[in-house]
Amino acid sequence: MEPQHQKEQKIPESSRQKRSQTSPDTIPQGNAVETSPVFNLENFPALPTVFTKNDFEVLNKAAVSVEARVRHHKWEVKYEYKFPDCFKKLSISINGKTPGPTIVAQQGDTIIVEVKNSLMTENLAIHWHGIRQIRTPWADGTEGITQCPVVPGDTFVYKFVVDRPGTYLYHAHYGMQRQAGLQGMIKVLVPNGIVEPFSYDHDRNILLTDWYHKSTYEQAAGLSSLPFVWVEEPQSILIHGKGRFNCSAPSTDATLCNATHPQCTPFTMTVVPGNTYRLRIGSLTALAALSFEIEGHNMTVVEADGHYVEPFVVQNLFIYSGETYSVLIKADQDPTRNYWASTKVVSRNSATPNGLGIFNYYPNHPRRRPPTIPPVGPRWDEVAPRVAQSVAIKSHKDFIHTPPQTSDRVIVMLNTQNRVNGFMRWSVNNVSFNMPHTPYLIALKHNLLHTFEQTPPPDNYDHENYDIFNVAKNVNATTSNSIYRLKFNTTVDIILQNANTLNPNNSETHPWHLHGHDFWVLGYGNGKFNQSIDPKNYNLVNPIMKNTIPVHPYGWTALRFRADNPGVWAFHCHIESHFFMGMGVVFEEGIEKVGKLPTSIMGCGESKRFHRP
Length: 613
Ligand SMILES: O=C1O[C@H]([C@@H](O)CO)C(O)=C1O
Description:
Number of strands: 32
Subcellular location: Secreted
Distance between the termini: 26 Å
Strand order of the largest sheet: 10-9-12-17-14-15
InterPro entries: Cu-oxidase-like_N, Cu-oxidase_2nd, Cu-oxidase_C, Cu-oxidase_fam, Cu_oxidase_CS, Cu_oxidase_Cu_BS, Cupredoxin, CuRO_3_AAO
Protein name: L-ascorbate oxidase
Strand content: 25-35%
Number of helices: 7
Largest sheet: 6 strands, mixed
Structural class: mainly beta
Bound molecules: ascorbic acid
EC number: 1.10.3.3
Shape: globular
């Protein structure tokens, strides 16, 4: 296969140059080619003085004229001081950036990412979120589940095929490293000549994250200590790595905060009046559920987690950690001014200020402050509009994957906050997940069954007696590293059942993410799921397929998937602290069909004996 840099020569130099300043995410990036996703003060003067619609068209055409191929990336992961919200924070960067480079590919391409761990004293693993890893379960990047961690100084090679077009993510899957900044986006374009069920002039992407000033280590230690120390709300919300912390807030250490630092210039997206933009929005927040809006502009939702949606219009897009959406936005408002892009924490009573950016109508200056007060966004405690959006997401009528009409197994998963020996944990059916020392994929393939507990976790909870609306009485969960073993090629239903936390009158929103599969979203409901009534209302006609889904406060969410991808797959709450506190499970299916494991994933626990460097 031809190396990427040779292919890139085909793109005219003139558009390459413009592209790197203006349309960063439309073209595959090599290791050396790194582009900034936003305008900033340094590169603003370099914009062409006359920027025509044709410029954009050239860039866009170049993006889709590439052929299927191997895309090779070389990444170095290390700690660096960054000021994404003006506050100095030791962050994990990829090739100097956080968020890391957007991986841009075309359906069917093979992605190779050579990751060098330069964290010095810290292990590493990277998960390719939304990529199903068909025939490459060892490349899923989930430390403890599909691989041993990559130790400092080592280089690990991830190799996998991006088999479907759409918007995906990548991020650290080791401890709580994700929130230190090790995250980014993957954009998979349709093959040449394939037309999507909507049209647009330009394709952009935005990663939403929340940002903490405390180190992940302080946070992880607090979560696993007695007394428990909660991570609290994030200090900032970042729009593609850009935020703004109030450096003059009374408790702020002024020596660590620099309000004029060039890294914390606001996020800006420049648009040409009259044009339509496909905005791919992903969330990799550590904790926050978000609402995103562009002041005064409607957004038409067209894609969710890589699947085309029957289009619907929103003013605010609710997005949970681990989800991606594409929305279409037409720059059809008064072109003489700029508009706010705003993102707000919902579902938690958070004092975190809204993340703000500028939706810049060309040729206004990208930094010109919109003349209006930034939108305040929806109320944090109104659940109904969020449930309404969840329910509105249906498969596009021309792209329906009809689900199996029945299932072979139903697993009801009660989500609870518990204490275990005094420690604060989260559990499923009263079992709080612990990571094993030997990754399951290796343990199962090499018959090292003694390396984890063999009694499977329960398929249900005490449905009759458990009161989901109140703080559970005298319930003490256990911890376990046991897993669910699914019969290969069967259809499995999962009912996520939410409940009250340990705080009275409180139930949180949890975004659950399934590795290795997409699932059909069969339905949502309030209160306790009723096995004899609720399945009658499932959407078995046009459900959307997704890989991440919220379970709303005091509600339930029903999913269905086919256990047809040989491997070992995590299913967990995508709130980083909650998974860290045990809110997850693991599924095995078709382990006997998994090919020979690469020795590069081995080296820890009992897999040491198979490791050949
Ligand atoms: O896991 C959590 O702990 C806190 C709180 O319940 C205890 O301080 C919180 O809001 C969580 O989501």
